[in-house]
Amino acid sequence: MSALTKLNTITLAHHLMAQYIKEGDVCIDATAGRGFDTAFLCELVGENGEVVAFDIQEDAINSTKALLEERGLKAMVYLESHTKMNTYKIAESVNGIMFNFGYLPGGNHSICTQAASSIEAIEMGLDLLKKKGVMSLCIYHGGDTGFEEKNAIMAYLKDLDMKKYTVVVSELYNKPNHPPLSVFITKDK
Ligand SMILES: C[S@@+](CC[C@H](N)C(=O)[O-])C[C@H]1O[C@@H](n2cnc3c(N)ncnc32)[C@H](O)[C@@H]1O
């Protein structure tokens, strides 16, 4: 396990995903955005794996496809809400899912993930995960984002069946202005 050069919410999520996801696995990027997580997952699963990415904005889909092309990577990238991810042809069950909530960097801040649909998609994602599968969540709060989504997601996660899931929350504790939370979930049963 190599040390992180910079410890933040995203590098921590990537670091943890990389401990579990291997060549040939099936992964979902539930919030494609500018495509960095999609590209990261493609590199983890390699040519024999499969990555499916969703976003509701054309800007995000175009960015993600452009990044993948630039890096010579392949994924199925859909202009679709993550609440519909179980209607797509995804291999029987999934090894890993990443959510990076909030708005598209460099995009319209008013188009962002919402508490109710985010929880619906997390729940759906947990169902899609196979045993020993993992999910990472980067949760922003404060500022333009407010607290509603973060509070709703954290309340939902608190009640997840402890026999079935392990939920770890990391916080950049000494950073100002409501730093994002990094959540990592393993499906144990
Ligand atoms: C913080 S960005 C994601 C960053 C991205 N993972 C990356 O590596 O660049 C959040 C994204 O979630 C998308 N989004 C908002 N609601 C969504 C939904 N219901 N389904 C899928 N994507 C959604 C936004 O359009 C935005 O692009």
CATH homologous superfamily, by name?
A: Vaccinia Virus protein VP39
The CATH class turns out to be Alpha Beta
| Cα radius of gyration in angstroms | 15 Å
Could you say which overall geometry the principal axes of the C-alpha atoms support?
Answer: globular
Quantity of strands, as a count: 7
Which spans have pLDDT < 50 for at least 5 consecutive residues? none
Question: Approximately what portion of the residues adopt beta-strand conformation?
Answer: 15-25%
CATH topology: Rossmann fold
Tell me what the CATH architecture is.
Answer: 3-Layer(aba) Sandwich
Tally of individual helices: 5
Supply the helix-strand structural class.
Answer: alpha/beta
Helix content: 25-40%
| Helix-strand topology string | HEHEHEEHEHEE
Strand order of the largest sheet: 3-2-1-4-5-7-6
Ligands (ions, cofactors included) = S-adenosylmethionine
Question: How would you characterize the largest beta sheet?
Answer: 7 strands, mixed
Give your account of this protein's structure.
The chain is an alpha/beta fold and 189 residues long. It has one domain (9-187): Rossmann fold (3-Layer(aba) Sandwich), CATH 3.40.50. Helix content is 32%, strand content 24%. The protein contains five helices and seven strands. The protein has a seven-stranded mixed β-sheet, with helices on both faces. The protein is globular and about 40 Å long. The two termini are 25 Å apart. S-adenosylmethionine (SAM) binds next to helix 2 and strand 2.
